[in-house]
C-alpha cells in the first residue's frame, strides 16, 4: 500500500463523532479557525475606524456661528487670552463647571474652564441683571482681567456665547476686523441704514465741539451733514460698557421700524469697534424745555396755541406707541427736553433709550426705576410697576409744565410750590385759576380753555393709575372743543364703582371742574354721550 493510500484510508475512517469521517471533522475545524480569524480581524478594523473618527472630532476648530439665542456679543477689551498660532481658537474647550439650570428669569453661578493645550483659563460670571431677554454677563479671566461682556443670552447658552466672544477676541487688532463682526451681529436687526464711522466723522467735522447740540445722560449729540446734504443728529453713546449697548439696542428696537409724524425718525446706526452711534433726522427748532424755560427773550412768541399744538402732537405720538403697536412701547422718559420741535412747531418725541416693549395688557416689574425726577409716576417710583399709564402720568406733568411755564420740581420756590403737581392741585381746589397760567404768555387762554387743559392734566396724574385715561382719549379730549367732560367722568366713575377707593378730594376736584367747564360751554352734552363712550376703556 502506497503512503497516499494509507493516508486516505486513515482519513476515511469513521469517528465516534456522529459517525463522521476524520477528513470531514478536520475540514470543519480548519474552516472554523479561518472564520474566527476573519471575524477578529474585522472587529479590529471596525474599532480602528471608529477611533479614527473620534480622533478627528476632538481638534475640530469649529466654533458655532452666531446663535439665535445670542442677540449681541460685545467685547471691549483684549484680555489675557489664549490663542493658537493661527489665531484660531478651535482647540479651546469650554467646560462649564458650575452652571445651574437657568430658570425662566435668571441665569446663575456660571463658571467654566477654557483649555488650550496645557493652559487653562477660568471664566466667571461677574455681574448680571436678569429679566428675560435682558441679561448681561461679564467674563473675566483667572487673573482678573476683563475678557468681555455677553449681552442678552436668552436661553442660558453661555457656552456658545463665550466661544463666540473668545473667537472675536482672538481677532486681535484692526478696527476693520472688529467691525466685520459687529455688522454680522447686528445685521439681524434687518432695518435701517448702516453708517460708516468715516462717514459720520466727515458729517460732523470729526465730532467737533462746534457741532455739539447737547449732552444727555447717555451720550453727546452732534449736528451733522451727510454727503447727500441731509442734516442729521448723531448721538454718540458713552462707552460705559453695558449701558451704551443697551441704550443702542433699545432705541433701535423701539423706534427703528416705526414711523409717525410726531416721533423723531431714527435713520440708522453705526456700530464699529466700541463705537455705538445713532443717527436721527435733525429737528431744528430746539426742544420744549428750551422754549419753556431757557428762551426767556422769545417766550412771548411761544403762544398758547403753539403750546397746545405741541401737547396734542405729543399725545398722538404716545397714543400711537401705546395703542397701535404690538408689542406696545412704553417710553418711560417723557419730559420737556425729550420733545423736539420742528420749524412748523410739530413736536417730535425723542430719546427712546429707556423705552420698554410690552405685550398687550402686560405690566413690567423693575427693580431699577428709570426716568426723570418730577415726571415719574408714583406707583412706578414706589413699586417698580410699569405700564403705559406711567407715560400718561409723565404726560400730565408735561401738560402742567406747558400751562404754567414752571419746572416739575423747583427747590428755588417756596416749600408749598416746589412740587408742580401738588401746587397746581391746591390752586384748583382753592379756585385760583387766574394765577396758574404761564405769566410770560402774551395772550392768556379763555377761562374755559384753561380749565379744560387743567382737567385733562389732573386726570392724567390721577394717583390711581387705572383711572388715568388712555392716551388716545387724551388726544380726543384735547382736540374736541366740545368734549363733554361731565358725562365722560360719570361713565368712568360707573365703570369702576366696584373698586372705588378714591380720595374724595381728588374725585370732588375733578367733578366740580368738569361741571364748570360744561356750564361754561353752554350745552348739557346729552347728544355727545354715545359718541364719547366708545373711547373709554
Ligand atoms: N434729532 C435731534 N435733532 C436735534 N436735536 C436733538 C436731536 N436729538 C437730540 N437732540 C438734542 O440733543 C440734546 C441731548 O439729547 P439727549 O436725548 O441725549 O439728552 P436729554 O434728553 O437732554 O437728556 P437725557 O438723555 O439724559 O434724558 C438735547 O438738547 C436735544 O434737544
Describe this structure in words.
This protein is of the alpha+beta class and 537 residues long. It is built from 16 helices and 18 strands. Residues 50-135, 152-159, 169-190 and 523-537 have low confidence and may be disordered. It binds adenosine-5'-triphosphate. Adenosine-5'-triphosphate (ATP) binds next to strand 8, strand 9 and strand 10.
Largest sheet: 6 strands, antiparallel
- Contiguous uncertain segments of 5+ residues: 50-135, 152-159, 169-190, 523-537
Mean pLDDT: 69
- Indicate the structural class: alpha+beta
First-last Cα distance: 122 Å
Strand-residue proportion: 15-25%
Helix content: 25-40%
Bound molecules: adenosine-5'-triphosphate
What descriptors fit this protein?
537 residues, alpha+beta, 6-stranded mixed beta sheet, 39% helix, binds adenosine-5'-triphosphate
Could you give the topology of this structure?
Elements: H1 3-11, H2 22-57, E1 70-74, E2 93-96, E3 111-116, E4 119-125, E5 136-140, E6 146-153, H3 158-170, H4 175-186, E7 193-194, H5 197-203, E8 212-216, E9 219-225, E10 231-237, H6 242-255, E11 266-272, E12 275-281, H7 288-294, H8 304-324, E13 328-330, E14 339-341, E15 347-349, E16 356-358, E17 364-365, H9 378-383, E18 385-386, H10 388-404, H11 420-429, H12 447-460, H13 471-479, H14 485-495, H15 504-521, H16 529-533
Parallel strand pairs: 7-11
Antiparallel strand pairs: 1-6, 2-3, 3-4, 4-5, 5-6, 8-9, 9-10, 10-12, 11-12, 13-16, 14-15, 17-18
